[in-house]
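Input:
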Amino acid sequence: MHFIFEPGFFSSEPVHIAFVVGGVTAIVSAIVGVFTVVRGQSFAGHALTDVATTGGSGAFYLNISPLVGFLGAGVLGAGAMDLAGVERLRGRDVATGIVLGFATGLSALFLYLDTTKSATTGVSQQILFGSIFTLDASTIPLVVVMSVLTLAVVFAIYRPLLLSSISPDLAAARGIRTRLVGILFMLAMAIAVGLSSIAIGSILSTALLIGPAATSLRLTKSLCNALVWSSVMGVVTTWLGILLAYNSYYWFPSSQGLPVSFFIVALIFVAYLLSGVPGLRRGPDRRELAVPSAEVAPAEVI
Amino acid sequence: MFSGFMEHAWIIGSIVAIVAGVVGFFVVMRGAAFPAHAIPNGAFAGAAAANLLGINALVGLGAFSLAAALGIGKLSRRGRADAVTALALMLMLALGAAFLSQSTEYEPQIFSLLFGEILGVSTSQIWPVAALGAICILAVTVLYRQLLLTAIAPDMAAAQGLRPERIEMIFLVVLACATTMTVPVVGALLIFTLMIGPPAAARSFSDRALVALALSVVIALITIWAALACSFTTNWPVGFYVGSFSAAWFVAGRLYAALRRTRGSRQFRRANELSLAA
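Output:
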């Protein structure tokens, strides 16, 4: 038994909190992530974590709650990305890049001001990598409430979101306001990403958003199945990663364990590679779910 | 402002701006903003690994950015390019975090790799950056037509027997090359911002590829010079000014394009885009 679960694993308070917060954020990220991947917005999803961390460092400087900083900056960033370029796929990535560049520039300024204000070090380390083991039990209710809200938004716009993700033209022809749906989804994504980057760090935030979703979309063609598989995979990799990280404190003589983010990302990456092995896919010639690609979009020129 | 350590900053800043202006033009034309962000950011894991093994940081940076470029190029053929790029970036960041957890000194190093130390550049750092920058510019000059044609008119490129995957792979390697040497000098943030903002603005200002390319370099130079001057005066980080000025250029470009579009020249743009590639 001790071979799998090192001593103290089940009685440790940080481990319990990590399991709950990690599990909840994994599910929300996985579900929002499926739409993110189908809509081809992985870059925006990742950029929002960096934008959110800008809010985190800004909140530290202004002495306001970091959560307000993370979520506020995420929502502002999502709005700016949407405003700067949503029509063209290629132009959208550039607009995302501009917002990302501006936000990281602001980050540099805030971190500089933080260090001149007080002698605190470790801020950028903490903000970048986060640690799921240093969470406070008081964050649990807030994480759960925000997660439920995010999922509620996604499921409320489920059908129009689905159609406008897979075929924007068809959705527009049916009278769906694709722009509005897109903005609502961006906001949901911003909250999900802001929440997960404050809870589990920005590396894990993007990995949990994109990894399980991209993997499950390679394994199944049905979006419903993809949502289920993605959530299951997100939770399993998170919990397994926490277990491995906990155990890794006993692997090295220096008692210097490896970070949780490393294990979870490694597990996700291996799963993604495995899902590409032809024998594991259902059907010999299964194409991935249709993605609105830059090449076919007739609006490209306008 | 123009003496001592600032002299090196002006020289290296100008070199980086020229390289970023040229390579960035193709980044924007090809919609490769995400790889342009992922490769320099992920390369930091290489520096962490080099630090742990006690070897030169440049070797680690080079190895990791090259591996990232090749990995993204290879995996993108069989999956969604943006999801693959995100996963590759996360894997490298996680590896970096793992390396850092095993070493003792990290905080200042991360900070300088992300945000750069352009004010602390030494003479010995100038030549390698200049040489590598020259190689990158040479590479995109030779491949100028292929890079644009595969991006703008994939059908035409295929008809001419060009292989888009191979061109993409070569371009990613050029990107890795352009970022490796510049990351330790100006930081991942600054090089990425310079590669996106000025070229995107230049593209809005002109439809002619060569004019846009030249404008991109000019705007990048103005941006870095203004940023250095402001940073020297106010003591705030250079990266903040580069980020703000780049965003301002982009907004100016979009406004200009919107203004011109209302005068009705839509047909022109398509014709121009195609003629420059042919």
